[in-house]
Amino acid sequence: MTYLGLAACFVAACVPLFAVAVWRRRPDRRWWASTGLTLLALVVLTAVFDTAMIAADLFRFDESRLAGIFVGLAPIEDFAWPVAAVLVVPAVALLMTRDKEDRP
């Protein structure tokens, strides 16, 4: 399996949870803005720090299993993990919060 295939499976497993959370809770614009800014920040940090770690030769990838698309030195597959985190963490937080009418 390629790194891209593994990353796609992982992100695909996170999408239903995100969809259910959005469908059930109907978040407002503020939630969407903060989730989008979180995604942007994590993607930028991934690009910067993955490039730095790869340049320092802290780890290597099997070139035959990469898609061949890079942002800096970071392969595109590495960006699936922050995307998955932004799908899961806000969705779980959204599902765990109570509505105003649910509060005592």
Automatic annotation (TrEMBL):
Record keywords: Carotenoid biosynthesis, Isomerase, Membrane, Transmembrane, Transmembrane helix
Location(s), subcellular: Membrane
Name assigned to this protein: Lycopene cyclase domain-containing protein
Pathway: Carotenoid biosynthesis
Keyword Signal: no
Organism of this sequence: Nocardioides malaquae
Membrane-crossing segments per the record: 6-23, 35-59, 79-97
Chief site of localization: membrane
Signal peptide: none
Topology of this chain in the membrane: Multi-pass membrane protein
